[in-house]
Specification:
The structure is a single chain. With about 130 residues, this protein is an alpha+beta fold. The protein is built from four helices and six strands; from the N terminus they run E-H-H-E-E-E-E-H-E-H. The structure holds zinc ion (2 copies). One zinc ion (ZN) binds next to loops. One zinc ion binds next to loops.
């Protein structure tokens, strides 16, 4: 689960109504420092917090901003090869794959169905000329 600070606040407030957004930020900062929370940001999107899992990468839908955790074992050799070439140490790499999720693709297909009569009308009109 990847929650924004606002979403975290909403959840915490169901139990502790007096909690402020500032408290949420201070708490996740501490949890991040001790390695219990990971932060994920992409392309100006609001930062998302998640419980610290093992190293993973992200698949992000450009349409609905849905985020999926993915494992990319083949990234490690690539990262090490680049580091070796440029003599970097202490390396890390994060991969974010973007695209359109299955739900959004399905919705776009339905939108296509609705557009079809218009296309057919245009074709008919063109055939008449
Ligand atoms: Zn989507
Ligand atoms: Zn994640």
């Amino acid at each position: 689960m990847h929650l924004t600070a606002d979403a975290l606040l909403e959840r915490v407030r169901t139990r502790l109504p007096g909690v402020s957004l500032g408290t949420i930020y201070r708490t996740v900062d501490i949890l991040r420092e001790i390695g219990l929370v990971q932060i994920f940001t992409h392309n100006g999107m609001a930062a998302r917090y998640e419980a610290s899992l093992s190293k993973h990468h992200h698949l992000v839908c450009d349409v609905c901003s849905d985020i999926t955790n993915v494992n990319v074992p083949s990234l490690a050799p690539v990262m090490h090869a680049i580091a070796a070439q440029y003599h970097y140490d202490d390396i890390d790499a994060s991969l974010t794959v973007t695209g359109r999720c299955v739900n959004c693709a399905a919705q776009a297909d339905h939108a296509g169905d609705r557009a079809e009569p218009v296309e057919r009308a245009l074709e008919t009109a063109a055939a008449r000329e």
